[in-house]
């Protein structure tokens, strides 16, 4: 388990992480989300002792990272896949890590096989593609067979097969009772992988909840109803105190009722239905809704300004 208590990091007058308190539990994949500049990378670096907190504390199974003997046997992390010695072979890179953490030598071949790099084990990583470098970073994280794993943008550079593989790997690791903490900007992938979410914005905790509850609490859900008798269906719904909202194409949006309830009422009053479909927001839509006020960097579409000049993209929000 990873436990953060009032974790804070300041750089001068800039507060990058502001009194974060949450726990990452074993047995599930926990997603770590936030806009650019939210403090995710700084938080993960403090978890691993790479940055010193201004105040607060992080515990890895009850101890600080610097108190762990042979830390790779407790926690494995992928923060920057290219952070390797380019002159060493992939095998020797892992060998140095294994020797410094009392990891059995046979474990190197096991993780190289697992990530699909056995054939290039004697090649230097400086010639690796982004995806191959990512696989080597994942191999390093798994080297000590740790109970806790942290991944920052693990699918960067991976092809579709690789993305499918790492997604299933993280789920499998969690199913073994391990703690899996993953940060990513790919909402569609996070929605398929994580069961629990921790969301931060401008260094502050915004949400610490299950995936299902996060989407339900930060988005609007409704049932889309289409019928050749919209007025009759409106009156049927109004009889139980529900007022639908009509779309431009004549379909209705109904809130506060389940599809089965609407269908049963329509059948009772003999109203023909052509469509009865629940509409739920995506993780991306819910995330955008929650973090709208916490985005520090906004991109702007190129286009003419009122004075006829082209607009500037990527300006910082002031």
Q: pLDDT under 50 segments (min length 5)?
A: 310-318
- Gross morphology: elongated
Could you say how many structural domains there are in total?
A: 2
* CATH fold description of the largest domain: Rossmann fold
Give a count of the beta strands, DSSP E runs of length 2 or more.
13
What features would you describe in this structure?
Pfam families: ABC_tran. Residues 2-227 form the ABC transporter domain. Keywords: ATP-binding, Nucleotide-binding, Transport. This is ABC transporter ATP-binding protein. This protein has helices spanning 40-47, 90-100, 106-115, 130-142, 160-175, 187-193, 211-217, 230-238, 259-268, 283-291, and strands at 2-11, 14-24, 29-33, 55-60, 75-78, 148-152, 179-183, 196-201, 204-210, 222-226, 245-246, 252-254, 275-279. It has 318 residues and is an alpha/beta fold. It folds into two domains: 2-216, 3-Layer(aba) Sandwich (Rossmann fold); 222-279, Alpha-Beta Plaits. Strands 5-6-7-3-8-9 form a six-stranded mixed β-sheet, sandwiched between helices. Strands 11-12-10-13 form a four-stranded antiparallel β-sheet, with helices on one face. A hairpin with a 2-residue loop joins β8 and β9 (204-210). α2 crosses α3 (106-115) and α7 crosses α10. The chain is elongated, with a radius of gyration of 25 Å.
């Amino acid at each position: 388990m990873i436990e953060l208590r009032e974790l804070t990091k300041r750089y001068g007058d800039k507060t990058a992480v502001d009194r974060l308190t949450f726990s990452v539990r074993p047995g599930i994949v926990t997603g770590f989300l936030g806009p650019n500049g939210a403090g995710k990378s700084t938080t993960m670096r403090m978890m691993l002792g790479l940055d010193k907190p201004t105040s607060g504390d992080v515990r890895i199974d009850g101890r600080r990272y610097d108190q762990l003997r042979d830390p790779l046997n407790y926690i494995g992390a992928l923060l920057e896949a290219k952070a390797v010695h380019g002159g060493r072979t992939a095998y020797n890179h892992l060998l140095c890590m294994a020797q410094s953490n009392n990891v059995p030598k046979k474990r190197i071949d096991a993780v190289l096989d697992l990530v699909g790099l056995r054939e290039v084990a004697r090649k230097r990583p400086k010639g690796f593609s982004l995806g191959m470098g990512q696989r080597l970073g994942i191999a390093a994280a798994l080297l000590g067979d740790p109970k806790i794993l942290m991944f920052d943008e693990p699918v960067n550079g991976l092809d579709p097969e690789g993305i499918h593989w790492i997604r299933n790997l993280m789920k499998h690791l969690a199913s073994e009772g391990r703690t899996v903490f993953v940060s990513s900007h790919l909402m569609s992938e996070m929605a398929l992988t994580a069961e629990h979410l921790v969301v931060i914005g401008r260094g502050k905790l915004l949400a610490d909840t299950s995936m299902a509850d996060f989407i339900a609490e930060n988005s609007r859900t409704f049932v889309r109803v289409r019928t050749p008798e919209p007025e009759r269906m409106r009156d049927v719904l109004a009889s139980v105190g529900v007022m639908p909202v009509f779309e431009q194409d004549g379909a209705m949006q109904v809130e506060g009722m389940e599809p089965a309830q609407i269908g049963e009422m329509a059948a009772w009053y003999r109203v023909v239905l052509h469509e009865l479909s629940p509409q739920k927001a995506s993780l991306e839509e819910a995330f955008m809704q929650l973090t709208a006020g916490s985005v520090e960097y906004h991109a702007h579409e190129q286009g003419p300004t009122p004075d006829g000049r082209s607009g500037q993209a990527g300006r910082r929000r002031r």
